[in-house]
Amino acid sequence: MTQYKLVQEWLPIPETQPFNIIDVDINNVLQYENDIKWLINSFHKRYEWDGFPNWEMVINRLQTGNNFFFLCEYNDKIIGWVWFRKGEVDINKEHIKFYAKTNDTTVWGYNNFLVSSKLVHRPKDAGFYWCNLHLKRLFDLGIKDILIDVETWQEVSLKMCDLNGMKKIDWVNELVKNA
Predict the structure, then answer these.
(1) How many CA atoms lie within 13 A of 74 on its CB side?
(2) Longest C-alpha distance within the chain, in Å?
(3) Is 119 helix (H, G, I), strand (E, B) or coil?
(4) In order of start, what are the domains of the chain with their CATH numbers?
């Protein structure tokens, strides 16, 4: 697992961003139900992973009120999503199980997903632009620190973290020390 941290000063701002970001919460989630279910089905057609949220998990996460949930829109089509949790980190992966409280200006990112370019037409650098857009949105909302962990086999995600100015920092140990 590679751990990344981002603060606003490190984020590059590209000249153009061909995507729209949609903030989803418990009050507007039903408006995007069909799109979210399509994303869930698209993921399962490509990957076999039981940990990807289903519709009920989406609703449960939004009911807690401690998640940021953004949808990615390109050419009037929802093509991806990303989740960020504020106030806590909860990692449960093969080699690490970790839980920690964080302050209200720190978020932990998880479940970032863009539909395959085989299913929808999207620009070559879609991952970079989408990642940059939702990271900028978090800073606009007052977030100061963004924490992300990426499995080492996820080469595209690792590249997106690097391109968007994230630094490899062992933030899990930092949180343990400061607990």
Answers:
(1) 21
(2) 45
(3) coil
(4) 2-177 (3.40.630.30)
Question: What is the identity of the amino acid at 145?
Answer: D
Question: Once rounded to an integer, what is the mean pLDDT over residues 149-163?
Answer: 86
Cα–Cα–Cα angle for 123, 36, 44, rounded to 5 degrees: 80
Please give the backbone phi and psi of residue 68, each rounded to the nearest 5 degrees, phi first: -100, 130
3-state secondary structure of 86: strand
Q: Indicate the length of the chain as a whole number.
A: 179
Name, in order, each residue with C-beta under 8 angstroms of 120's C-beta and a sequence gap of 6 or more.
74, 77, 79
Strand-pairing partners, residue 168, are 4
Type of residue found at 127: G
3-class DSSP state for residue 144? coil
**Residues sharing a CB contact under 8 Å with residue 28, sequence separation 6 or more, in sequence order:** none
- 102-114 pLDDT, tens digit per residue, is 999 999 998 888 8
Q: 44-48, 88-92, 105-109 — which is least confidently predicted?
A: 44-48
Residues 6+ apart with CB under 8 A from 83: 61, 67, 68, 69, 109, 110, 111, 112
Determine contact, residues 1/152, Cβ cutoff 8 Å.
yes
| Residue 150, burial from CB neighbour count under 10 angstroms (0-12, 13-18, 19+) | buried
CB within 8 Å of 88: residues ≥ 6 apart: 66, 99, 100, 101, 102, 108
